[in-house]
Amino acid sequence: MAFDSFTAFILMDGHGPYVWVCYGVFVVLIAGMMLWSWRRHRAVLQACRRVHETTDESGRGSAQPAPATFTRVKVSQD
Amino acid sequence: MWQIFHKLGSPKWFFGIATRLMPWLLAGALALLAVGLVWGLAFAPKDYLQGNSYRIIFIHVPSAFLAQSVYIMMATAGVVTLVWRMKLADVFVKAVAPVGLVLTFLALFTGAVWGKPTWGTWWIWDARLTSMLILLFLYGGAIALDRAINDEKSAARAVAVLVLVGVVNIPIIKYSVEWWNTLHQPATFKLTEKPSMPAEMWVPLLLSVLGLYLLFGWLACLRMQTEILAREQRTRWVKEHVLARRAG
Amino acid sequence: MNAETRPLIKPQESAVSTVAAMRAVFSRDMKVAFRQRQDLLNPLLFFVMVVTLFPLGVSPEVSFLREAGAGILWVAALLSVLLSLDHLFRHDFDDGTLEQLVLQPQPLFLLVLAKTLAHWVLTGLPLVLLAPVLGVMVHLDGNSIAVLCLTLLIGTPVLSLIGAIGAALTLGLRSAGVLLSLLIIPLYIPVLIFGTGTVAAATEGAPVGAYVALMGAFLVLAITLAPFAAAAALKISLSNS
Question: Which of A77, C104, C149, C227 has its CA 20 to 30 A from that of B109?
Answer without folding.
Answer: A77
